[in-house]
Amino acid sequence: MVAQSVGFDELVQAAGALMFGAGRKFIGIAGAPGSGKSTTVERLLEALEEDHPGQVAILPMDGFHYDDAVLHQMGRRPWKGAPDTFDVGGLVSVLRRLKDGSETRVAVPVFDRDLEISRGSARIIPDDVKLILVEGNYVLLDRTPWDALAGMFDLTVMIDVPEEELRRRLRARWEHFGLTEDQIAHKLDGNDLPNGRDVIQGSRPADIIYRQDEGSL
């Protein structure tokens, strides 16, 4: 099946349609680093909240980053953000708890970008939430161990952004954090953009391709 290419209004409509089904629903939203996943999901949450207040929540994949101490032990700290630097089993476990629905409150971790660490139990998802937006680079990645997420979503979305625009956004991000030119070069061409190509080339086909409206970021 060929994925449907949509703008933001159509994305809201597709997500909103899930609110009327029985049981809790999950949307997997993937994209390369710098594609605007977090911003898109926050916009989507805000739009859905207008008609469904308190019934939508976000589960960010970035909350499952390994701690820097673990990455140092692994020898992978310079490549933080690569597919092997996440606790995929932890994400799968939390999704299963959320799908089970027997708990009244599930605490989930959130990544603090300013501190560059994951904060455990930083967000609560209560049992009256009907739709969970699961966002992250690799939630559709078709390789072990990420393929354990296959079949967990009721709708999947890939955010489509040209690589030259990804490079521009990522450079601006790392400049904002005060990195040197050498550090930025490693981040871009040694980590972020190769990871982005992994996402684009190695993910399962999404139900929807979202192309951001001009000026949406």
TrEMBL record:
Phosphoribulokinase/uridine kinase domain mapped to chain residues: 26-171
Native species: Donghicola mangrovi
Pfam families xref list: PRK
Identification of the protein by name: Nucleoside/nucleotide kinase family protein
Coiled-coil intervals: none
Classification via InterPro entries: P-loop_NTPase (IPR027417), PRK/URK (IPR006083)
Keyword Transferase: yes
GO molecular function: kinase activity
